Amino acid sequence: xxxxxxxxxxxxxxxxxxxxxxxxxxxxxxxxxxxxxxxxxxxxxxxxxxxxxxxxxxxxxxxxxxxxxxxxxxxxxxxxxxxxxxxxxxxxxxxxxxxxxxxxxxxxxxxxxxxxxxxxxxxxxxxxxxxxxxxxxxxxxxxxxxxxxxxxxxxxxxxxxxxxxxxxxxxxxxxxxxxxxxxxxxxxxxxxxxxxxxxxxxxxxxxxxxxxxxxxxxxxxxxxxxxxxxxxxxxxxxxxxxxxxxxxxxxxxxxxxxxxxxxxxxxxxxxxxxxxxxxxxxxxxxxxxxxxxxxxxxxx
Length: 300
Prior knowledge:
Layout: H1 28-40, H2 45-50, E1 56-63, E2 67-68, H3 72-82, E3 87-90, E4 97-98, E5 103-110, H4 111-142, E6 148-150, H5 160-169, E7 183-185, H6 187-193, H7 196-205, E8 213-217, H8 220-229, E9 233-237, H9 241-251, E10 256-260, H10 268-273, E11 278-280, H11 283-286, E12 293-299
Parallel strand pairs: 6-11, 7-8, 8-9, 9-10, 10-11
Antiparallel strand pairs: 1-5, 1-12, 2-4, 3-5
């Protein structure tokens, strides 16, 4: 199961085998708190009117369609914030492929916490499991063909760490996390800098010796310019297969080749055979469908 190797920012209980290191993902706790505040506001009018504060309940969270699960620890956080004594027992691990009817988790808590947290917990689980499921489909097509499937920065604002985690859970890889951890010279940067050669030169002047420079190329002329400028990675943007093949031949191993734009599941094996090293797929996050997950409660 993919893990984030960075250390938690603050100490916490020992991680369980199924539990990713959520403390290492900046902003997750505050995001859950924000989501609850958005939904609950000044109080859950329905639940508060109907349910005794001390009544206890048991909830089963189940898959209603085939899916790859992601986000169990986030769902647990939802219920823990509403009831510090809540017990969240997972029935699987993030990254597991589940069939309809499979139990993701069993939650024992105050009934009010279960009812108030239901939608928020399911929103996180459905969205993140949807991303993981989409990523699994794309990464499965890459198989052992030697091509890497990565995501992009086309993520839900505020959810990037979570969605990129879900991409890894699904078996694909992450591109740069944000503007702060990678040089990618795109079309508008090229215009602003006065050309590819000038952009690469200025980037080199401001980088340490271990950093790579990636350049977006929309034409074969751009490929030639990027090669001449010494780009480490060349992103072929929205090129058809014939043009990609020509670009790979011209690059001839002098730089890594990334393809972006119009990358479908079906196209990945073809791009691998053409010699492409990386495909970046915005659809892993921006077009992932929330999967169907339900929660049912009963009194205990």
